[in-house]
Amino acid sequence: MRLSKAFIPTIKEVPKDAVDASHVLLLRGGYIRMVGSGIYEMLPLGQRVLRKVTEIIREEMERAGAQEVLMPALLPASYFQETGRWDVYGDVLFRIKDRRGGDYHLGPTHEEIVTDMIRRDLRSYKQLPQILFQIQMKYRDEPRPRAGLMRGREFLMKDAYSFDVSEEKAHESYGTMREAYHRIFQRLGLDYRIVQADSGAIGGDTSAEFQILAQSGEDAIVACTSCDYAANVEVAEASTEGAARPEDAAGEPLERVATPDTKTMEEVVAFFANENVTLQDTIKALVYLVPGEEPQFVMALVRGDRDVNEIKLARYLGTDEVHLASDADVREQLGTSVGYVGPVDTKGMRIVADPEVAAIVDGVAGGGDGHHYRNVNFGRDFDAELASIRTVGDGDCCPRCGAPLRSYRGIEGGHIFVLGTRYSSAMNATFLDESGKARPIVMGCYGIGVTRLMAAAVEQNHDEAGIRWPLPIAPYQVIVMALGKKAEIFAEAEKVYQALAAEGVEVLYDDRKERPGPKFKDAELIGIPLQVRVGRDAADGFAELVERASGQAQKVALDAVVPTILGKLRAGGGR
Ligand code: ATP
Ligand code: MG
Predict the structure, then answer these.
(1) Ligand 1: which atom is nearest the Cα of residue 448?
(2) Cα distance between residue 237 and residue 335, in whole Å
(3) Which of 415, 445, 454 to mutate to test the pocket of ligand 1 (most atoms within 8 A of CB)?
(4) pLDDT value of position 16
(5) Domains of the chain as residue ranges with CATH
(6) Is the peptide bond before 295 cis (omega within 30 degrees of 0)?
(7) pLDDT tens for residues 250-260?
(8) How far is the CA of 189 from the centre of ligand 2 (A)?
(9) pLDDT tens profile 442-460
(10) Average pLDDT for residues 35-42, to the nearest whole number?
(11) pLDDT above 70 covers what percent of the chain?
């Protein structure tokens, strides 16, 4: 493709409202344009990248035995009504009326539709297992679309669904998909971690996220520096180290001390500085309101140096969310201001404590307005239900192997899930087993955010000047640049371009009548992996070969350019 003829509208300035690197660079590089909030179009370069990402995913799905289908994006409400999701999906669902007043919606995900596809025509255990997938636009009216392709309201997803005769077989399909995902993320050249996404409470791996590591990621994850344990902080298990109480710890007598102006844990520690009290000796107490038919107040306790993880707390309490109680509610319930709450006099309030709190010997805890208790001991001075409710992070130990954990930010690129019979039971999708008995099909679902992966790849591969595409997903593998004014330079560059194209190399040719400066800038910005710079040296029979990612440059004889490029493409997985 000749740049003089191509539609690649690059932009010099940083577009308004774009902050994340992927958003800025995909706009500036002429890859995407916004049509409306969270709605984007692919320009020619963007479409080439998307096609490559899609093709890798399709190849690996098919290699794993999955079959491609295409379901409608426009859906009658009846399917979501069957499972109750028409009501619970809320504002995220794009709802539509047709001309007769019938209810429709745009598909945010397709469990119901694929379950219906299977129940129509599948009868016997002999037809199982099946794995179906599609690559299709999804529609979600996200409350906060952000960062271009990262969180859109229309976005391309690969969604796959597995159907099996039993829970055990469903886990086999899950394992197959998990392997396929590894191959996909590796081939895309992404640095990722597979992250436990369920609490693991039922033992075993039934849900995992593929997280692409990036500073701008929305998700907080922790990963072990030694073994392969990694988890979303929403579910990360805390190591039990430090949660054991020394057996011979008798404890000094409980004492209530006036501690004016000590509302934060740090101020408390400073107040007791003479007595060697550290943050680890203090008990942080927070009061939460648990919504429900009968709203309930619950006190959560963690060690002073820790934070309550509200998602873990909510899960333990069997609810979707908890909210910090207001100052007024705390005053009404406990007769104190928020800064002096503690577990000793709670007037019967339910208390949930992290196991580390139970291990504190002679701790310090709030004791009502202007006071703290000294020598507080679990079991003797207060009781509590023990549950892991703290946030795990840097400095914690791995719950599997004990090595240090590290925290990262991540972008959720994919999510795999054993669904069980939730949809098949609700929709009566059954098969006849060997004895002729009808049983619900056991399902799994597996998503990848295709357009999000494109953005994530840029987050991981860029510098100030622009994108540095990994070879397997670059829109073009090579850009040939004619640098200078002389006709001979253009003639030599043209020859190189033609020769590369004849070899089937995906090559862009900057044949524009421009100065070298803007040509360099554009090449860096759009991020083609290999540059062939044909300039003054062409008269002596040489060109310069530059790798965009490393900046490495090498002088190559003009007639050696093609074989050198072909060698690099083979080495980089580009052929
Ligand atoms: P998130 O927590 O980021 O909202 P999700 O849990 O809603 O994701 P799934 O329903 O599991 O996501 O969808 C499968 C994949 O689709 C996700 O792993 C993610 O990569 C991608 N995805 C989800 N929502 C969006 C969106 N609004 N824009 C782009 N990609 C998305
Ligand atoms: Mg979501």
Answers:
(1) 15
(2) 34
(3) 415
(4) 87
(5) 21-73+107-210+412-458 (3.30.930.10), 255-386 (3.90.960.10), 476-571 (3.40.50.800)
(6) no
(7) 789 999 999 98
(8) 25
(9) 999 999 999 999 999 999 9
(10) 97
(11) 98
